[in-house]
Design goal:
The protein has about 260 residues and is an alpha+beta fold. The chain has helices spanning about 20-60, 80, 180-185, 225-255; strands at about 65, 85-90, 100-105, 105-115, 125-130, 150-160, 190-200. The chain has two domains: about 1-65 and about 220-255, no CATH class; about 85-200, no CATH class.
Length: about 260
């Protein structure tokens, strides 16, 4: 007669040993701590992104203020000045334009950065807008900026350091970020503001006219709430798995 004192299936399911339980416990602690840490980091990122969006919306829709002058340059940071709506006047410096490669909704092309000399002699790099590949000739010579005094309204932007790949190469006049200091050195410009200005769109301008201003991206994706929920759910799943293992081990030991 077969032995019925042991439930069917227990002959293939053994209790875990102390080493296996210790390793499972260590794995659970590491995973739980990691997921909770990532979720908490996303909480901080959510607060930062929400504040960034609020500050950006407030600044871009505010009336324009004079662009910071020399006396204010040292205090300019992304936190207190990025996307500030500013206005400045001056004359374009001829022969010193710079093309910075970019990709926009209008296709691939270049930002056209032109130095603007103000009345006090200081210079501000102005991103006059986007121009498609082909607007400049094959040697990189672009149509000259208008002569005479102009007034520019736009958004203050912080200088963008060169990336690793692709990297700005002043020797070949290849630019991929709007690095104000590097562009100023390459163009022989001095007394240059540590920021640049993205020019606003010109009201009533011909749609086929280049460069086209007003293309600054001010809509920032904010998926941090989804991320933090995902990480915290994974942490809860680890707790659930730990509870299952504890219950399973307790059941096996109780039967034996």
């Amino acid at each position: 007669m077969p032995d019925t004192s042991t439930p069917p299936g227990d002959n293939t399911r053994h209790m875990r040993g102390p080493l296996a339980l210790a390793l499972l416990a260590l794995l659970g602690i590491v995973l739980f701590s990691t997921f909770v840490g990532l979720g908490t980091w996303q909480v901080h990122r959510l607060a930062w992104k929400t504040a960034l969006i609020a500050h950006t919306n407030e600044r871009v829709h505010a009336p324009p203020v004079p662009a910071p002058g020399r006396a204010d340059w040292s205090g300019i940071t992304a936190a207190n000045a990025e996307y500030r709506h500013v206005q400045l006047s001056g004359t374009w410096v001829p022969g010193r334009q710079t093309r910075v490669w970019t990709a926009t909704d209008a296709g691939g092309g270049y930002w056209i950065l032109t130095p603007l000399r103000r009345d006090d002699g200081s210079i501000v790099l102005v991103n006059r807008g986007f121009a498609p590949d082909g607007w400049c000739d094959f040697k990189g010579h672009c149509p000259a900026a208008p002569t005479g005094e102009v007034t520019v309204t736009g958004l203050l932007r912080i200088s963008e350091p060169s990336g690793l790949v692709p990297r700005n190469d002043p020797a070949t006049d290849s630019w991929y970020t709007r690095d104000v200091a590097a562009i100023a050195r390459a163009r022989g410009l001095t007394d240059v503001a540590p920021y640049f200005v993205d020019a606003a769109a010109t009201p009533g301008a011909d749609a086929s006219a280049w460069p086209r201003g007003g293309m600054t991206v001010i809509q920032f994706p904010n998926h941090h709430l989804n991320y933090l929920i995902t990480w915290y759910l994974l942490a809860l799943m680890v707790l659930g798995a730990a509870g299952y293992v504890i219950r399973d081990e307790y059941r096996l030991r109780k039967r034996r």
